[in-house]
Amino acid sequence: MPLDQEHEKPQRQAANIDLKRLRREQGYMPMAEHLGELRKRLFRIALWVVLFSIVGYIFYAEVWDFLMGPIAELVRKSREPGMPPVKIMTTRLGDNFAIEFKILLLSGFILSFPMIIFELWRFVTPALSRHIRRWGSIILLASVILFWGGVFFARTVTWKTVVNFLVFQWLPPAIQIAPGDFIRPEVNLTITDYLSFFTGFHLAFGLSFQLPVVSVILGSMGILSSKLFFKFWRHAIVVLCLFSIVVMPPDVFAMLSLLIPMMGLYFLSAFLVKLIEARRTP
């Protein structure tokens, strides 16, 4: 090998090392490392859910009251004159074990949500700009508050109305068994179906309340712009109205209880993305 090429080889190696270091600082990561990092984060998320499920087991009575409180109100209302009887029941052997497992898993997910967001944040951080990384703690805190806020808003504001409407408003007509003697069909609620509907409903609220956080992240990456928010705000309202009609029962209060917060979060997202663009502009 010529002497000049032997001198150039260490220089090329140093340049390659500097290039790799620069690309890593800019968020570049080979696919194999991406998959390895994703697998590690998913394992930690599963571990956090298990640990907080144990916490849910310790406070199982409080978790049960939080989930099943509306059922007690339905049973009390069913005892009023003219109301159909409401019963809560299980139908299969082993349901009690499956119900407790689902409740613990649900409580573990909700309680561990801050750690889940933290792990996901650490996974996507390399792809974000330095500016948005500095605001990481605020974004994480806002995400947790919005998620828990969405879940508790659904539980305390809308859930009671939704359950009451679905149980008592769509009843079949009373059955006449004798002149002047009518009976109403019983309403038998299985705990499994109730918990499935409860879980999907509240998680939908919690995740939909993440709109400002997702908008800020996408705005910082240049994927979303405030012009899109303000240009298509009428279309967004129509979409939110249709979403509220589909998700919520045909009750005005229930639909507005979802529509108004989502509209507020939409315009809050537009305002936050606008702030990001203003700070980015020299």
Commentary on this structure:
The longest helix has 33 residues. By secondary structure, the chain is mostly helical. The mean pLDDT is 78. It is 76% helix and 5% strand. It is built from twelve helices and four strands; from the N terminus they run H-H-H-E-H-H-H-H-E-E-E-H-H-H-H-H.
What brief labels describe this structure?
two-stranded parallel ribbon, about 280 residues, 4 strands, two-stranded antiparallel ribbon, 12 helices, mainly alpha
Strand content: 5-15%
The average pLDDT value, as a whole number, equals 78
Please provide the ordered H/E string of secondary-structure elements.
HHHEHHHHEEEHHHHH
Poorly predicted tracts of residues: none
Helicity range of the residues? over 70%
Class from secondary-structure proportions: mainly alpha
**Coarse morphology:** flat
Number of strands: 4
Strand order of the largest sheet: 1-4
Q: What's the helix count?
A: 12
Total domain count:
2
Q: For the report, how would you describe the main beta sheet?
A: 2 strands, parallel
CA-based gyration radius: 26 Å
N-C termini distance: 51 Å
